[in-house]
Write a structure and sequence with these properties.
The complex is a heterodimer of chains A (597) and B (58). With 597 residues, chain A is an alpha+beta fold. Helices cover 59% and strands 7% of the residues of chain A. In chain A, a hairpin with a 2-residue loop joins strand 5 and strand 6.
């Protein structure tokens, strides 16, 4: 992120008292015309200069390394490592050029809607760039074909046969003894069975049917290798991070799928590997290998893929897969909720094409452009694209958009329950949306509460997103998020390393923990890219104005103190709402347990 | 004004297109750094091997 995390620094400067008088006539120069012109010009500059700068660096670095190495070209020539690095650099040059071309196509797509504003001075200057972009045309799927180079195809039977053979007795796979020792013979046979029956072409067929994307193109992006590995082997290689967190099962890199056979989550209560979940995980990874350009927020993208993989598994087997074991607590729920608005095809097509317009258009048709924009604001990749609150924000905006469009939100809740994942979506009257789930090691609840409507569709709403539950990982995240601000994060996180500890605490201790979060929050307006986000921008309008209007340094200091106090009050109110939401959730859960047969 | 509203919506879209492109370029630059490091590492290995060979002949 390039901007400051300090909310006050990120706020636009308040307008001076003369601002309204200096506003141009709207019919001649609509508000925002100058801004959009500047934005397009900046985009044009970046699109034109970035690929050239990247290619220039590649050329210079190769020349520099060869000059510095004091080696003759023939000495360097046959080195496979050097050749691989050079080839990677050439591929990156091509990627930058392709990204620029894809961006130009997207920008060109805006031209028809911008033409009507071409008379405005700010827009006029930028029109030539957009017109040049619009002449590029090209099919939307071209951007996806760029990935062919990244994942060259191999005969699929070879890819499938190889993984199965690598798990057979007598295989030359040097990792096999370790796998056998850690998994046991029975589990090893189960894993072998999974890949003996795994059919990349069939899965591709289903993906193509679901998304409407050309099957040939998806086939070209098929996985080139599937490797089932022990933790010992993975931890020595480039995917070592896979073994660092329990909930990581597999990863895809350049078309190579690495499956972490020892991941605890693959096993059921009896210690047996669940072949269905392993196959579903592999489908998830195949969907990564065959994905379109990376255009979505990270967590939401994963949620979309999990949604696509689960639906594909259902279509292949005829049964809906069981409990959700990955991307719970928001990412999957966001895709599932959004699918209520854009359909299964909308989600699958957006994923495999990487085209955000697929979702935007689907949403516009269902809930209108303003609501669509609010949802897409969180869905698209951007400076906050790893912000962990994004999935909840999307759920929140989708539910509220559905309400505004007169749709039945109760059906969204029912649909989530019927999904069979164990996740529940709760929509409260007070503006809260909660995603909850019972888990073997605790209880997970994530919530988003919005305090009022945003001042405009373009302004960030006053919103609180908070994770609070008996599930350690998520409260740990909260502690970690506060770490840069108040040095209590280790204490909070350490406390929740033990699973389910929150549920075992006395109510007064649970209260203390929540109070701790309030204390950490004090005086802060916004924690960006964290689990706890409070944006009090629009509610602080009067205080901001007072700071701007202050005549003396003393007045200004007093006004700033008043603004900080008000921000704290708003935050406390928000936290209280969250706590009330948690209490209501727990009461509902207790009542459900009592009435359960 | 409806025009203002529409233009603001377009502004958001242009910003989004730009943000996506910038993120892609940042990602490419990161990968480029890694590939350059690999290239340097490979040349270093070759240099060390050459020096070893020279030492052996002395």
């Amino acid at each position: 992120m390039t901007g400051s995390d300090n909310p006050m620094e990120r706020m636009p400067q308040p307008r001076g008292p003369e601002a309204p008088e200096s506003r141009p006539e709207p019919l001649i120069e609509p508000e925002g015309a100058a801004e959009i012109g500047e934005e397009i010009e900046a985009l044009a500059l970046e699109v034109e200069s970035s690929p050239a700068a990247i290619a220039d660096r590649t050329t210079k670095e190769i020349a520099r390394v060869e000059a510095d190495a004091d080696l003759s070209p023939s000495e360097l020539k046959d080195d496979p490592d050097a050749e691989a690095a050079k080839s990677e650099l050439a591929a990156l040059d091509a990627q930058a050029t392709a990204a620029a071309a894809a961006t130009k196509r997207k920008a060109g797509g805006l031209l028809p809607r911008l033409r009507k504003f071409a008379g405005a001075a700010g827009v006029a200057a930028a029109m030539s760039f957009l017109e040049a972009c619009a002449t590029m045309g090209g099919a939307r799927q071209e951007a996806g074909i760029e990935h062919v180079e990244k994942t060259p195809t191999r005969p699929l039977s070879e890819v499938e046969g190889e993984v199965e053979a690598s798990l057979a007795e007598g295989s030359s796979n040097q990792d096999l003894p370790e796998l056998k020792a850690k998994l046991g013979q029975e589990n090893l046979e189960i894993v072998r069975g999974v890949y003996g029956g795994y059919d990349i072409a069939k899965v591709t067929d289903v993906f193509a049917q679901m998304s409407g994307v050309d099957k040939g193109m998806l086939t070209q992006r098929s996985p080139v290798k599937i490797e089932v590995q022990s933790d010992a082997l993975i931890s020595q290689g480039p995917q070592a991070a896979l073994t660092e967190v329990d909930s990581r099962y597999a990863v895809t890199d350049h078309g190579v799928i690495t499956v972490r056979a020892e991941a605890k989550g693959f096993k059921d209560a009896s210690g047996k590997i669940d072949p269905d979940f392993m196959a579903e995980t592999t489908m998830h990874e195949q969907a990564h290998a065959q994905e379109g350009p990376d255009s979505f927020n990270h967590d939401l993208r994963e949620g979309m893929i999990e949604f696509v993989a689960r639906r594909a598994k259902e279509k292949l087997d005829g049964d809906r897969p069981g409990a959700l074991r990955s991307y719970e607590g928001g990412p999957f729920a966001a895709a599932q909720t959004l699918s209520q608005l854009v359909g299964e095809k909308g989600i699958a097509e957006a994923h495999f094409t990487g085209d955000t317009n697929v979702l935007r258009k689907g949403l516009e048709a269902k809930v209108g452009p303003d609501s669509a924009m609010r949802i897409m604001r969180d869905y698209q990749k951007g400076p906050d694209s790893h912000a962990s609150q994004a999935p909840l924000s999307v759920i929140f905006e989708s539910v509220r958009a559905a309400e505004r469009a007169g749709m039945d939100t109760a059906s969204m809740e029912r649909s989530m329950r019927d999904e069979g994942t164990g996740e529940e979506l709760r929509v409260t009257k007070g503006g809260g949306v909660f995603v909850s789930m019972d888990k073997p090691d605790g209880y997970l609840l994530q919530g988003v509460v919005e305090d009022g409507e945003p001042v405009s569709p373009h302004a960030a709403p006053v919103r609180v997103t908070v994770v609070t539950s008996g599930h350690g990982r998520h409260l740990g995240e909260l502690g970690k998020a506060a770490g840069g601000i108040v040095d209590r994060s280790d204490e909070v996180e350490g406390m929740f390393e033990k699973p389910a500890i929150f549920d075992t605490l006395e109510p007064s201790d649970q209260q203390s923990v929540l109070d701790e979060q309030v204390k950490n929050f004090e005086g802060k307006g916004r924690y960006a890219d964290s689990s706890l986000v409070v944006n009090v921008w629009s509610d602080l309008a009067a205080e901001r104005q007072a700071v701007a209007d202050a005549k003396t340094p003393e007045d200004k200091a007093a006004a700033e103190r008043a603004m900080a106090d008000r921000a704290t009050t708003l935050g406390r109110q928000a936290i209280k709402e969250i706590k009330d939401g948690v209490a209501a959730e727990r009461a509902a859960r207790a009542a459900n347990k009592k009435t359960a047969p | 004004m409806p025009e203002d509203k529409e233009l603001k919506a377009l502004l958001e879209e242009v910003r989004s297109v730009r943000a996506v492109f910038e993120a892609e370029i940042r990602n490419i630059r990161k990968k480029q750094n890694v590939a350059v490091e690999r290239l340097i590492g490979s040349a270093d290995k070759k240099k060390i091997a050459k020096i070893k060979r020279l030492l052996e002949t002395l």
